[in-house]
UniProtKB/TrEMBL annotation:
Family as reported in the entry's similarity comment: Belongs to the RbfA family.
Binding partners and assembly: Monomer. Binds 30S ribosomal subunits, but not 50S ribosomal subunits or 70S ribosomes.
Organismal lineage: Bacteria, Pseudomonadati, Pseudomonadota, Alphaproteobacteria, Rhodobacterales
Stated name of the protein: Ribosome-binding factor A
Compositionally biased region (Basic and acidic residues): 124-134
Gene: rbfA
């Protein structure tokens, strides 16, 4: 069984990043051009935020988000229903010898960014930042 480079504290290889981005762009194009001919998927207007590929390139985890963030479970179910067809299309268009198995997940990046933004705008955090800035301006290195 292949080792997962993420669990060892290392990031993905250049090959994983390259293949993941190729799959992301290809899948985005397929969904944009409605090549699945499924009106339910077209209606959702999906964004493909990221694709993470395992080190052996056998599995690609696709992070998607429907426009407006609504109907997330429906989007995952629809994509999973078409995963065989999507895999064939991606393999053909991206010219991959072996197209990876596709796993679909909701992209939570935007939610995480919003939570971070809210945390940083909290008045207690702002007070700590101001105190640290004042200490740094006085030349005091201790927080």
């Amino acid at each position: 069984m292949a080792k997962n480079s993420f669990s060892e504290g290392r990031g993905p290889s250049q090959r994983q990043l390259r293949v993941g981005e190729l799959i992301r762009r290809t899948l985005s194009e397929v969904l944009l051009r409605d090549e699945l001919h499924d009106p339910d998927i077209t209606r959702l207007s999906l964004t493909v935020g990221e694709v993470r590929v395992t080190p052996d390139l056998s599995i690609a985890t696709v992070f998607v988000l429907p426009l407006g963030g609504d109907k997330q479970e429906e989007a995952i179910a629809l994509l999973a229903r078409h995963k065989g067809e999507l895999r064939r299309i991606i393999g053909r268009k991206a010219k991959l010898k072996h197209a990876p198995d596709l796993r679909f997940r909701i992209d939570t990046t935007f939610d995480q960014m919003d939570a971070t933004r809210r945390m940083l705008s909290d008045e207690r955090v702002q007070a700590d930042v101001a105190k640290t800035d004042a200490s740094d301006a006085e030349g005091n290195d201790t927080p």
